[in-house]
Amino acid sequence: MPGPFSLDSRVALVTGANTGIGAAIAEAMARAGAEVLCAGRSDMGETIARITRAGGRARALTLDLSGPVADLDPFPDLGPVDILVNNAGIIRRDDAVDFTEADWDAVIDVNLKATFFLSQAFARAAFARGAGGAIVNIASLLAFQGGIRVPSYTASKHGVAGLTKLLANEWAGRGINVNAVAPGYVDSANTAALRADAARSEAILARIPAGRWGRPEDIAGAAVFLASPAAAYCHGTILTVDGGWMAR
Question: Does the annotation count 185 as an active-site position?
Answer without folding.
Answer: no
